[in-house]
Design brief:
Blueprint lengths: L3 E9 L3 H13 L5 E4 L30 H20 L3 H4 E3 L2 E6 H15 L7 E3 L1 H7 L1 H4 L6 E6 L3 E4 L1 H14 L3 E4 L4 E7 L2 E6 L2 E10 L3 H9 L6 E7 L3 E4 L5 E4 L11 E4 L6 E5 L3 E2 L11 H8 L3 H11 L2 H12 L6 H9 L12 E2 L6 E7 L4 E3 L3 E3 L5 E5 L8 H16 L5 H8 L1
Parallel strand pairs: 1-2, 1-11, 2-8, 4-14, 11-22
Antiparallel strand pairs: 3-7, 4-6, 5-6, 9-10, 10-11, 12-17, 12-19, 13-16, 13-18, 14-15, 15-16, 19-20, 21-22
Helix pairs in contact: 1-7, 1-13, 2-13, 8-9
The structure holds flavin-adenine dinucleotide.
Flavin-adenine dinucleotide binds next to helix 1 and strand 19.
């Protein structure tokens, strides 16, 4: 890119969110010029890379941290991803069938499973309640040597796993086939400024003038928003997740019940589609002062979007005043310390595999991303899930912690409609319905 170029839409960020939007705009609208700018040399190398997330297509059936309302919302987002992936010629690289379950351990959690089955199963026709004998058949290592009562609910024959980086590449390839999409790699956006009826997007190699800008740059989206005076009601709390590997002990995904006092999902174990022969356990939940895992140059960016003012301090105080949260957070710090981390993580992982041995458990070095969790300063609480800042003037900022990869098409469809409306473009609803339903 040299000097100043004109385009209709700029998408900042080539993770799964930006890629999904590029695909939708190219495939279902008549917008002539769409440009995606990604600061690294590849598509979806950060949180959307399968190495750094849990690869789960979240349908809401086994996530005990979701209310029924939230579950039904993610169910729709997951269906869009599944429909796209299953029609793709490379579907076997995109989406995978594994059994999945959420495991209730002990009397209280088992009762919860039974209750949840009653309220959720009408909405999830393939969901089953698994008693100990069923669990032993599906996941023998989960029951081996176990004394406590267990009950699970789950699904044995459904698409539960996605290689989100491969999916993002598929979106980009489809988008580029339209010849209306330009994808620029190693194109770091330095600033966005309003100009005439649109925006100027500044990069080191030149500027772009765009009529609409969508920023899907993880925690950096908030930084761009705040530099432009938007989203000042938010701060960003980056919550990193690490993983551990064992040789294969599970046939599918086994989630555990979330402690309701903790805002972060409990650990699970599952096959890693990128590492055949291994089962992966995690993710942990570690508050880290950086917007990108292992990228220490993003510490200053974190300091800009954390802004430790009175509302943020109140949220942090409320969070840490719970004894369970303090213990959990401290434990998650210890999970990173060589020498003791495997021993400590083993205690948690044994909730899933009671006979797991220390020698089989390895810390997954360099693996795991960061969830940019938003702090809502007005309501003084954590805002779980995706957040969007859309001032209505041709710019949108997306911040996407879990289940952001599952919701990529659902969220991108919202942005597509905003772009179409703002630019007066055409949306090919018939083609959209035919492909994505
Ligand atoms: C440990 C963990 C487990 C998870 N598990 C799941 C799961 O099982 N299922 C699920 O659905 N979700 C999961 N998530 C969440 C999911 O990974 C994210 O919601 C999703 O990947 C976000 O995609 P994104 O494109 O919005 O952001 P990212 O993937 O973070 O992409 C943002 C992109 O913006 C680029 N960028 C940043 N700044 C600039 C700039 N200045 N100029 C140009 N480009 C820029 C970055 O390089 C990056 O490529 C998990 C997350 C974590 C951390």
């Amino acid at each position: 890119m040299a000097h100043t170029q004109d385009t209709d839409v700029v998408i900042v960020g080539g993770g799964i969110s930006g890629a999904a939007l590029a695909y939708l705009l190219a495939r279902y609208t008549d917008i002539p010029r769409i440009t995606l700018l990604e600061k690294y040399a590849g598509i979806a190398t950060l949180n959307s890379h399968g190495r750094n997330n849990s690869q789960t297509l979240h349908c809401g059936d086994i996530e005990t941290n979701y209310t029924l309302e939230k579950a039904l919302q993610v169910q729709q987002g997951a269906a869009l991803v599944a429909r796209y992936a299953l029609q793709h010629p490379a579907r076997d690289e995109l989406i995978f069938k594994y059994p999945k379950m959420v495991l209730g351990v002990g009397e209280k959690e088992s009762a919860l499973m039974r209750e949840r089955f009653r309220s959720f199963s009408p909405h999830y026709p393939t969901m089953r309640l698994f008693e100990a004998t069923d669990i032993a058949r599906i996941e023998p290592e989960v029951t081996r040597g176990r004394k406590e009562e267990i009950v699970a609910l789950g699904v044995t024959d459904d698409y539960s796993t996605v290689n989100f980086q491969r999916l993002a590449i598929a979106f980009i390839e489809d988008a580029q086939a339209s010849k209306r999409v330009t994808v620029e790699m190693s194109a770091k956006v330095q600033a966005i400024t309003p100009e005439n009826n649109g925006f100027r997007v500044h990069t080191a190699t030149g500027d772009l003038r765009a009529r609409f800008v969508v920023v899907s740059a993880g925690g950096h989206s908030l930084l761009f928003a705040q530099q432009m005076g938007y989203g000042l009601q938010y701060a960003c709390l980056p919550v990193a997740g690490s993983f551990y590997y064992t040789p294969t002990v599970l046939n599918g995904k086994v989630y555990t019940v979330q402690n309701e006092k903790l805002p972060f999902a409990a650990i699970h174990g599952d096959p890693d589609v990128l590492m055949p022969g291994k089962t992966r356990f995690g993710p942990t939940a570690l508050i880290l002062p950086m917007l990108e895992r292992y990228h220490y140059n993003t510490i200053p960016d974190f300091l800009r979007v954390f802004s430790l003012d009175a509302p943020v301090m109140k949220v942090m105080y409320d969070l840490f005043k719970e004894r369970d949260v303090r213990r959990y957070m401290a434990k998650n710090v210890l999970f990173e310390i060589p020498g003791i981390r495997r021993m400590l993580f083993l205690q948690d992982a044994r909730k899933i595999i009671p006979q797991m041995q220390l020698k089989d458990l390895k810390f997954a070095h360099g693996i795991g991303g960061v969830r940019p969790v938003m702090i809502d300063k007005i309501n003084r609480k954590l805002h779980m899930g995706e957040a969007k800042i859309a001032p209505g003037n041709g710019i949108i900022f997306n911040m996407t912690p879990s289940p952001g990869a599952t919701s990529c098409l659902q969220n991108a469809a919202r942005d597509m409609h905003s772009v179409v409306q703002h630019l007066g473009a055409r949306f090919d609803e018939a083609a959209y319905k035919k492909t994505l339903g």
